[in-house]
Amino acid sequence: MIAQLPILQVIVPLVAAPLCLFIGRPKLVWLFTLVSSFMAFIISVVLLQQVMTNGTIIYSLGGWSAPIGIEYRIDYLNAYLSLIISATSSIILLAAHTSITAEIEESKLTLFYVLFLICLAGMLGIVASGDVFNVFVFLEISALASYSLIALGSDRRALTAALRYLLVGTVGATFILIGIGLMYITTGTLNMHDLSLQLVNVADSRTLVTAFSFFTVGVCLKLALFPLHWWLPNAYSFAPSVVGALLAATATKVAIYILLRFIFTIFGVEFSFSILPLQYILVALGLAGIFVASITAIYQQDVKQLFAYSSVAQVAYMMLALGLNNTSGLVATLLHLFNHALMKGALFLALAGVMYRVGSVQLEHFSGLGQRMPWTMAAIVIGGLSLVGLPLTVGFISKWYLLRATLENGWWPMAVLILIGSLLSIVYVWRIVEAAYFTPSVESSSNIKEAPLSILLPTWLLVLANLYFGTDTNFTVTISNLTAQYLLGASP
Fold first, then answer.
1. Residues of the chain under the 70 pLDDT cut
2. How many domains does the chain have?
């Protein structure tokens, strides 16, 4: 059974999805979905332990060895991302039943869980696959499920947001597919490991440069790198709250994984940062994204949109760190993949509690919530302080490694700009604090109570994780360093 874990991690949620249709009662469907996600989480923990002990795991489907057959290849990067995805989805599902009953029609509850599991299976398939075409297939599986999950939102604008995401996602997928096709024309293989060996011999090919360009632009559309981010705010804002939590915590991380995988283990650092000017592009767009998204967040009246624009800024931080092209920058990117999942998972689950009790996440409706919903608002404050990068939170650890990477390159003016960008996040977090704690509540809010325990518990589980991993960095820094060393050593 241990030998089958790489494929089981994908099969468990994929098979569980259609089975939900035969269970019937929504609460039982929720429990079944939670168990399936938790099984995927347990598998990811075991796989990470195996990788750390024995090295890369290779699983050949049907016994056909690559490049003829399809293989799953689990290394530090795969195992790390699988852990983030499955752990986050399991925690979010703890709050799902209570939250969605208030936001989705009862007749659509089973459909929600089916789509949730398909989306989870797609994301896990992306990070497990060792074949570039199957990465594309799983990417589209998760994307199609995401479009449908967003469209389930009660606000009519959810349909427009889903359509916009669909159109942008289709363009991104087309670019990715063109890139994959050009790689296949150049090398005659789709296996990632085989591609990394074949591409060394054709590094000066214009076809390869074109393939890399198409592929990178397509992935950057998926990960919402500025200025290709315009689909994300509405998608996160008008989706059901737990869907926003899932997408904010995992979707962009998966796209960043794809970019890391292709830059470091397929095309190689020298090709990506030397033959092509990717370093300067990522740094420039990263800096622009931090400031534009943070300033835009300050003026938002919808708190979901506020944190959605914050996600654009956080993606920009990760791309800036990657563009620094040094080990500390790569470690900072990998650290922030984990830390940002904790931040945004906690914040969007807390907003699910607000949505459940208040029925709105407009800033004007946060007046006095610090007294009415003290635990929920405390979770938002701590999550917001983590976005700022306050010491003792995970955000501080990410910013510390990013600043260190910047100074290693001797780019101290950029370090100053990063600090200024962090100060901008104080402004939009303070707007929420001011409304919740320093604005009198209106009479209509007198009946508002604290969020249900079923939403508070998973929210605070993520909040406490923000504080724990902000003080004890042994696990996150160790696995990020190991992953960075593997990626740099695996480059062709």
1. 1-2, 62-69, 203, 442-446, 490-492
2. 1
Beta-carbon contacts of 399 under 8 Å, excluding residues fewer than 6 positions away, are 389, 418, 422
The residue length of the chain stands at 492
Residue with tokens 């397509």: 218
Please give the structure tokens belonging to residue 54: 């024995």
110-120 as b/e: b if 16+ CB within 10 A: bbbbbbbbbbb
Return the structure tokens found at 355.
Answer: 């949505």
Rounded CA gap, 5 and 130, in Å?
15
Contact between residue 452 and residue 88 where contact means Cβ atoms under 8 Å apart: no
For residue 31 the two structure tokens come to: 């429990």
CA angle in degrees (0–180, nearest 5) for 78-82-88: 150
Taking the C-alpha atoms of residue 330 and residue 401, their distance in angstroms, rounded to an integer, is 9
CA-angle at 340, arms to 334 and 342, nearest 5°: 115
How far is C-alpha 105 from the geometric centre of its chain's CA atoms? 27
pLDDT digits (tens, 9 = 90+) for 115-138: 999 999 999 999 988 888 888 889
State the amino acid at position 463 in one-letter form.
V
Whether 316 and 289 have beta carbons less than 8 Å apart is answered as yes
Q: Angle at the Cα of 336 (from 176 to 434), degrees rounded to 5?
A: 115
Q: Locate all alpha helices (DSSP H) within 55-131, ordered by sequence.
A: 76-101, 109-128
The residue range of the domain holding 486 is 2-490
Residues in contact with 282: Cβ distance below 8 Å, sequence separation at least 6, in sequence order? 319, 320, 322, 323
Task: Please check whether residue 341 is in contact with residue 92, taking contact to mean a CB–CB distance below 8 angstroms.
Answer: no
Rg, the chain, Cα only: 21
The string of pLDDT tens digits covering residues 244-298 is 888 888 888 888 999 888 888 888 887 878 777 788 888 889 899 999 999 999 9
**H-type alpha helices, 153-298:** 157-187, 192-198, 206-223, 232-238, 241-246, 252-260, 269-270, 278-298
